[in-house]
Amino acid sequence: MRLLVTGGAGFIGSNFVHLTVRERPDVQVTVLDALTYAGDKTSLAPVADKVTLVEGDITDAELVDRLVGESDLVVHFAAESHNDNSLTNPWPFVHTNLIGTYTLLEAVRKHGVRFHHISTDEVYGDLELDDPAKFTADTPYNPSSPYSSTKAGSDLLVRAWARSFGIQATISNCSNNYGPYQHIEKFIPRQITNLIDGIKPRLYGKGENVRDWIHVEDHNSAVWTIIEKGQIGETYLIGADGEKNNLEVVEALLEAFGLAKDDFDHVKDRAGHDLRYAIDSSKLRDELGWEPKYTDFQSGLQATVDWYKANEAWWRPAKEATEAKYAAAGH
Known about the structure:
By secondary structure, this protein is α/β, with parallel strands linked by helices. The protein has a domain at 2-177 and 214-238: NAD(P)-binding Rossmann-like Domain (Rossmann fold, 3-Layer(aba) Sandwich). It is 43% helix and 17% strand.
């Protein structure tokens, strides 16, 4: 199989490439990545001799057409994905998430290539903190930020191309990922790297906002399950029953470092901060037989802490600029 992974130098994409090389050695992997601040070729260094890396933009129609034409399967991770950044400058999110996805869809349509689209649970908006409901594939879309709205738009483009033009596509919407190679602008790795530097964690507002956490290895094993067993045209939600509010995550991180659970600082809450996400992954589990491996959040978090401690050379170069940007925003 000839596999094209867009965004394969990013957090989830690079972990997907690692998993593929490790468990499917017969798959020929090509990565297309623009290598923006969130994409790092060093994330692929351990598998560099087994992967072809092409630096380029998914809105480059000529390049995309050539690479898709040489592939049997496209897995589309490439996206602008940071909510805070989307509030500051929405354009890159429109450019990559909408125009980039359109460009890929036209190429897979032309060449008849199987396509899997990676999306987020944030397209569904949020749930009330005391609501027992969870997101399902039938939950109406209700995005609340430029990031989530452009991801919702990209999902709808995939659905339209599948229905109107018959492309062989599936979609997955996943809850919040954590694990190795995640950019330190994100919540968990930012707190981990701050703690390594002796800086207290910072918590938005009261820390009541809930996210449904999943280890990136579980996300990617689910993606392969969908590719191999999923029904064309269907959407599958990926989650590991990992609901934690932000306060609980900070407390778990402090525990992983052997510190007191109240040893953190509060900061002003983020604008438009969604209250709660929760994934119902029963369709994926019941129909396709997938199960997560990392069912204990504390142990998965400890493994992630250990990785950042052992790989300072990977994250250190971006730390100063990341913290300067947060400081300018008062966070």
